Amino acid sequence: MPQKNKRNNNKKSPFAKSLMGMYWMYALIILALIALFQFSDSSATKNLDWTEFEKAATNGYISKITVFPESGEAQGYITKQGAKQLNIDTKSRLGSEQVKVKANIPSPDKIQDKIDDWNSSLEKEGKPAISVEYEKGSNLMKILWYFGPIVVIVFFMYYLSRRMSSGGGGAGGIFNVGKSKALVFDKNNGTNVTFKDVAGLAEAKVEIEEIVDFLKNPERYTELGAKIPRGALLVGPPGTGKTLLAKAVAGEANVPFLSMSGSDFVEMFVGVGAARVRDLFKQAKEKAPCIVFIDEIDAVGRARGKNPNMGSNDERENTLNQMLTEMDGFQSNNGVICLAATNRADMLDKALLRPGRFDRQIYVDLPELTDRVDIFKVHLRNIKVDQDLDLEQLARQTQGFSGADIANVCNEAALIAARNNKKIVSWNDFMSAIDRIVGGLEKKSRIITDEEKFSIATHEAGHATITWMIKYGNPLVKVTIVPRGRALGAAWYAPEERQIIPTQALLDTMCGLLAGRAAEELFTGQIGTGASDDLEKCTKIAKSLVLVYGMSDKLPNINYTDSTGQDMGFTKPYSENTAELIDSEVKRIINEQYERAKEILRKYAAQHNQIRDLLIEKEVIYHDDVEKILGKRQWKSRTDEIIEINKKEEELRIEREKEENDPGTPPPFSKTSQEIENKNNDRNIDNEEPKSK
Can you tell me the distance from the alpha carbon of 170 to that of 392, in angstroms, rounded to the nearest whole number? Predict the structure, then answer.
């Protein structure tokens, strides 16, 4: 395997090959121009017969003669006086004043005797003698002079045509524009990614592994009459591992794998998209059984009839029509499985999603707690971490993170540890990485006045106090007033993972969001602009309560949204009177939670002020610091219950080890983790705020 990677790394890219070809082309053109200027005859030349040539030589008009015995020619260099006598223009096309005359030699063997006679007569008259030179190869120079430019032009045109037909160095030429740009992976050229590299996604992996197993062992399914699935659509938020699953399929399957992006079908030329779809499936049929993967299929698979071109020809619709025909049309595509990925499944055309084209829709959701632990294990393989690092607690701190986010956390933690010259990556490095990703870069250099610092500490202490005292408040991790990103302060929580959120949980969330503004009003006497983000989130939750979940008393059991995405949204699905009622209900819910927050803060004003003063002193406080001031929370979160169960299971494990080491000791009475969890679930907890201590 390392040899194969080494061999692949030594291969030059098409772009590099194209550059080398261009450089060779430029070098040949420059050499041809140099040769033309070097060997070209830049002087004015006149052809004479032998009698005229001999007369000019005897009169002293020729200063030098060059003899070409092979061609039987003689060239004479005329003096200025001779040029006037012979009426020869001394200005050539290149501006040279050197003039030559040519003549055919009647007898090349006796030319030297003739020149000697001319020199003897010139000596008698007191004129300078004629110098003589003999040269060979004049025919080759003539050929280069006459046919050299033609050869260069023909070669240049041939090179341009080859580049256009071969795709112009990988960019797609005019003669190759209808060919698909699919990347082909097979046994010799795989992705080196397997299902072991895909952590979590257990349900999605089962569906995908079944397709791969079908290709490896088709007899196992065909004996029962089962047919191979035509396609599978991976749907989910960005960064959850859809493309990674496809890479794992390419690495696991022993069949050709053709990968292409949805945007590769769309070009400025009409009909190119459909031509590329035909060429893609043509290659797939030739390599069958094989898998075709189209990433971001929403680029060409949008619902037809909703384009913004208002009736004009849409290239995307033509591409989609051809794709529908190729996937399940008049001709069958036996042995070709189509995989696709998108995070906008609501925008896809219904004909594309029907069985026979995409038989399965596999939803790849954000990872849960156990999945995040597995993802951390995958990304921490090559990172030197502390042996005492609690991956489960780290997974709780990254609730709502995708697989790509977790990979970024691991990389940022390693960078932070290296920046601080550490040998291993510790817990604090991971916390700093999470803070960096969620909140942004820490800005300790930002200048903040004492008044602003007091207001920020009051605001964040309000969040910490309210969330600690309400039932569905998220477990607090730390509170800081150090500016980070665009925020001047922040309170970090470990949110619980709930599949169904009750009404009171949404109201408690709103109360916690409004706590900062309420604390400013109560303890500083004025409000600032620092609560804009909290107000935005609170307003969205209130609108969802009324418009989406039907939890309003005056508008119960009504949902005014369209989850299918088919509604264009040009008109509101309710009347003007209902709109006024919605506005009044949203205001009522927000005002009720705001007053509730102020009431709780009045009750725990002393504790709030202690947290505020501690924040001003330390700038960052943690869960234990808040617990010393407010005491233990009356309502335990699901996370706290899991922690207690894990602790008791650890105690039971230690007791069992002791029993194995000392078999004579009777086993102590102990409860199982299931009994402990059932007891916690059976606990009846009312919804009132805890009494003041």
Answer: 47
